[in-house]
Amino acid sequence: MTEPDDAGVCAAEPDSRLWGKERGLERPYPVICHLLDTAAIFGVLWDVVLSSRSRARIAGAVQLGESEVRQVLSFWAGLHDLGKITPPFQAQVPAAFAAVRKEPAYFAVPGAERETSFRHEVATHWAVTSLLAEIGYPGDLNRMRRAVSHQVAQLLGGHHGVFGQPLLQRKLSAASVHVPGLGEQGWADQRRQHFSELRRVVGASALPKDGLPAELAVVVAGLIVVADWLASQTDWIKPLLPAVGWKATPRALDEHWARASHAAPGVVRAAQLGRTDFALQQFEGMFPFLPNPLQRDLVQHLPRLVAERGSGLLLVTAPTGDGKTEAALYAAAVLGRTAGARGLYFALPTMATADGMFPRVAAFADQALYGERALTLLHSMAWLSPAYNGPSSQAATAVGDDAVVAERATATAAGTWLRGPKRGLLAPLGAGTIDQVLAGVLPLRYNVLRLLGVSDKVLVIDEAHAYGPWMHSLMTRLLEWLGAFGAPVVLLSATLTGSTAASLVNAYRRGAGFLEAAEVRPCYPGWLFTDASSGRVSTPRATQTERARTVEVEVHGVGWDSLDAPGSAVRKGGRRERLRAQLRPVADAGGTALVCCTTVAEAQATYRDLCTAFPELAREEGGLRLLHSRYQARERRRISRDCERSYGKPVGGEESRVRAGSILVATQVVEQSLDFDFDLVISDLAPLAQLLQRVGRGRRHRRGPAGRPSWAQSEERPKLVVLEPVDSGGHTKVPPTWGTVYDHGLLVRTAELLRREQKDGIAVPGDVQRLVDAVYAADFVDGVDAAVKQELARMDLERAAKEMAESHLARMTTICAPHDVEGDLGRLSELQDGVAEELLTTRLGADTGRVLLLYTQSGGELTLDEEGTLSLSTLTRGSTPTREELGLIMSQVAPVPGSWLREDEGLPHPAGWEKQPLLRGLVLVAVNREPDSTSWRGRHGNRSISVSSVGLEIT
């Protein structure tokens, strides 16, 4: 831009022509107004979202009183968009920019307005560093990472989810030369004027004496993002939009501040960002039953321990079916009240288990919690869940000046704002996958929002044993951050090794500042506790169980013929022969059985074979069922509901009777957090921990003699049949079709261990901890013959190398621990050299694609259903699918291995689908009805994909 001849404008006040918001408005919104709005809303968030403990920690860190620090941090929040006072940003609205571009005060080097890669948040980082230093913020800009002005500016520069790298003093001193997009002196003067007036109006005259440690900086950064988002809503801006010709005089700014401050509590209230109150502390008031021994021991001892030592981490280890969920919810109430936590998040390993936990958390909230109780279900397909999106989900309403309230039956519904992208963890209450919180320790955009979401909540992690080296490494890093926050944590596990327990507990302690590892020896069943204040690990408390049982283990070595065609000759000594023999009592005398397979293909083949073997069961509704992940979403939900009704907990008052003969063939989806009860459990060989999880579904609930078939009368001696694939010499031989589902060395160790134990059975809980530790023990090989010992040594080395590689890669990929940030928030967004973006995932190596099958009807029309009622052309008439149409489409999607889909892109997407992230990654495959009329088949590249009652298959 050339220097004009017109007279310049005075910079004595903020120029109201400089805009901050424009989209969806009748005229641009002055940037000074948006800065004030964000400051006002931040102040309310400070009051409402943060606990008194968090506010005191922040005040102590910057060495200011709490009233002073509220004003100072509100001022910081307002400064977040100061970088919009730059030529590149202002030029985005040509009409508004035209009003100022020719004035001398807004001179910039030619082309500065075209520096579109110079984003406004980066400009904020540059500008605020100098401006805060000018007013006396402590620190030397020659040592940028220790300068409070730079820390605050870097924090504000991250309000779009990514923190910039530290600035260099030599460049900062000639900023407009190195970054022309800042503009020249006139632009700097306007930024200074906006800065000064914002500070005056907010009353932020106090100067912090020190900066914030990383964990508190993350909290403040997250709150600023939330304040910005709330202040950017058109419904917020329109009532505050100044009249045409409005000038930003001191009086006008004071008046705008008054209006914004008056409106701010309402917008925070409407967003349901308040705090849950853990007022109820009596177990009997939370649940409609008396506590069992584990729960009773927690009731008797945990409150006193927490009252003496403060909040911390609780580890509970107990068998499946021993009430760990209720124990965790009770403990969450105790820990939450002591810590002043604002809510609870229940983290689970899978979407299915999260869906199952959601109504239980909702019921607990309705019975035991007060205050703001907005509850979200969090996973990638949560919006399809009927429990989350039923009629009651829209029932919450804002009433007067109170929190969002309604009937107690609807008060847990999360409203529209919390259901927006990246916001779900901000709700006071949540249930969802562990991935939602683990993503907070990956250098992903807006990871600070995820960390903010758990910084002041009770985090319950279920099935803490169920994660491999990659996810375990992410979890330990998350626990370090939680320890630094001082956030309460409850870990639950049915089969946790001592070494794994120690790594989790000590990660939390490290985050809290205790770097020396403590000895951790969990009891089974039992619990232990470490607090964030002293780091001491309590003496583990062993508890009793009302369901002490002995598992009768039978290990059968079998030839592996699981994929033989149904109806083919049954091999003697093969898996099919043994399975039929074990299941014959179900067909003859009734009762239920679970058959757990390793792969989907084997589950499908097993189901077909059993239909041939037991035609009388196959003819009965529910006589034979199949459950795995490779069904279309709607069909899988239907099957899961049927399973819950048939195999779930008996309904109180219901007459106990033997259930009609029924067999469920399933994969690992039944292992975790599902309250199923079978008379018999049969499983293909799997690692010991998984087998113990599966047998936890055996005779799980008390049904009495009248409720069990004659062949399964003893409820205290459930039966586990393990089918071990063996070679001709009787040695474990892992089938090639299993691939890398399980570590082969662990399978061999498990088989050896079970053979040793099957004579006397496995006492649950008495033997569990010993066996879980033993299967990993270095001296395990001492008890096996030389050939097996040599093979095991090789497998163990391979497993150790793989685990070490995964753990090392995870450490390279995750963000650093809080104490390693060292004044540079850029480390929370930094991708280390050599780390590909594909590694920014919570599940390493997860190779999954999504298929939408389109059924070809007789006239050539493509539909989403077999019956032909959901026409694709009808669903795609609009440029963008509606929410209802999205729901219909996604309910027909099935997950498949990514390797199925790499050869071809599938059918072209309808117009508008590429704009919708959920639809963008779908692969569309047309299928035609097969002559047998029971299945449909289509081509994808060189593969044939079919769908039938057993789900999707490929040849």
Task: Note down, in words, how this protein is organized.
The protein is α/β, with parallel strands linked by helices and 955 residues long. The chain contains 33 helices and 26 strands. The strands form five sheets. Strands 7-8-5-9-10-4-11-12 form an eight-stranded mixed sheet, sandwiched between helices. Strands 15-16-14-17-18-13-19 form a seven-stranded mixed sheet, with helices on both faces. Strand 23 and strand 24 (936-940) form a beta hairpin. Helix 15 (293-309) runs parallel beside helix 16 (324-339) and helix 21 runs parallel beside helix 22 (498-511). The longest helix is centred in the last third of the chain and has 28 residues, at 786-813.
Keywords:
about 950 residues; alpha/beta; 8-stranded mixed beta sheet; globular; disordered N terminus
What can be said about this structure in brief?
This protein has 955 residues and is an alpha/beta fold. It is built from 33 helices and 26 strands. It starts with 18 loop residues before the first strand and ends with a strand.
Mean pLDDT: 90
* Distance between the first and last residues' Cα: 65 Å
* Rg on CA atoms, Å: 31 Å
Major β-sheet profile: 8 strands, mixed
Q: Uncertain segments of ≥5 residues (pLDDT<50)?
A: 1-10, 391-411
How many strand elements? Answer: 26
How many individual helices? 33
Supply the helix-strand structural class.
alpha/beta
Q: Helical residue percent? A: 25-40%
Kindly report the oligomeric state of this protein. single chain
The fraction of residues assigned to DSSP E strands is: 5-15%
Strands of the largest sheet, in order across it? 7-8-5-9-10-4-11-12
- Report the principal-axis shape: globular
